[in-house]
Amino acid sequence: MELAGLDYLELLSEVSSAVNSSLDADTALRRLARILVPRLADWCAVDLVEGESLRRVSVASAGAHALPAGSRSAQAAPLGLTGAQAASIGLTGAVGALPLEMEELLLRTLRTSSALLVSAATANAPAGAGPGDDRRRLHRLLAADSAIVAPLRVRGNALGALTLVRIHPEAPLTAEHLPLVEELAHRAALAVDNTRLYGLQHEMASRLQHSLLPRLPDVSPLSLAAGYLPARESSQVGGDWYDAFRLSDGTPALVIGDVAGHDITAATQMSEVRNMLRALAFDGREAPARVVSRLDRALGGLGESFLTTMVLARVEGPPTGPWRLRWTNAGHPAPLLVTSDGGTQFLEAGRGHLLGFDATLPRKDAVEELPPGSTLVFYTDGLIERRKEPLDRGMTRLRRKMGGLSGADPQAICDELLAAGDTAGEDDIAVLAVRLPDMTENFPELA
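Given the sequence above, the corresponding structure tokens read:
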């Protein structure tokens, strides 16, 4: 642990890689603690500011691993500390809990702009108020021969503190270590700041995306629900969307689509495509294929590239049934039909090219009879696609999942599918589920 024996560049590179390899601040700081013990300290702690207090994120001691919040530590013994000493520095009990006196001193230390060296020399200095007194109290509380407390500071804001402690006097932390520890703390602060900025951007993007999605209409006697899940790996908005509306004659129209891209441009284009489609389809005089062909030509006239996949469908039939689905598919994953007994069928007919490819190519409609009590599921590719996995596997997974949800409430179906899709989080997911009534349940006179 001697300063001369440390490879500065190697340590800084390893720390930078560790703290920047996760978008979760707690995980990044636990990795930091594992690197610094025992290479630079006998034990270390990382605390983050939360409101007016501190939360201990990680503690690592020689011969032990960094501990996550909420875990229990019994690692004080290898350091030769008493139980009272271990408790005073937060090496026992819940990692998130910080002794009040220690918290008070660390918060006061964070008001400074540089790292604070605590040593036996400061402990033996004459008593009195001020920074010297804080050093004496820290020396006592940390049970340290020497220690350095460095603020995690970025853009003038103190985000937390990095505390490094050496128990034995043979190899103390000295003023020579201060520049290195300050650099380590700065890199950790940048990583924490980046994770928080990412979280803020992701939340804002998610809110923007949800604001662009429509409210679902009442399509009784059909039941309708939808859901949207942004990708965890992106802080940007995307082009996935769903839509449902009644045509001029009352026929329910259903849409699922995906504009290429994960940025503001994709979200803006998605909104344009959705609104233009509604206008073209509303009078209901043209079949879905004709409507989508007109949409393709209209988008081409805007002078932008609108690479878009989508399904436009209509549920046709009187309120008491029978019903049929008429749809066209512009390069999108096929809708899934689930019967009341759990049977599943991908509706592969009606398939054509995506929008923005060649508006002169013809499109076709498809028609499928819809059994009473069946459910239709429309979705975007994020639900079935996984990296390093064949697409067929994702489609089989969806069939099995839906086979077990036959007859379920559409909202429950959407919730289940989004929860399953969240385990991957690789792409945005939009889901639209429509359930047809069982005629014998809703219209007993037809039984």
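The chain has a mean pLDDT of 83. Try to locate this feature in the token string yourself.
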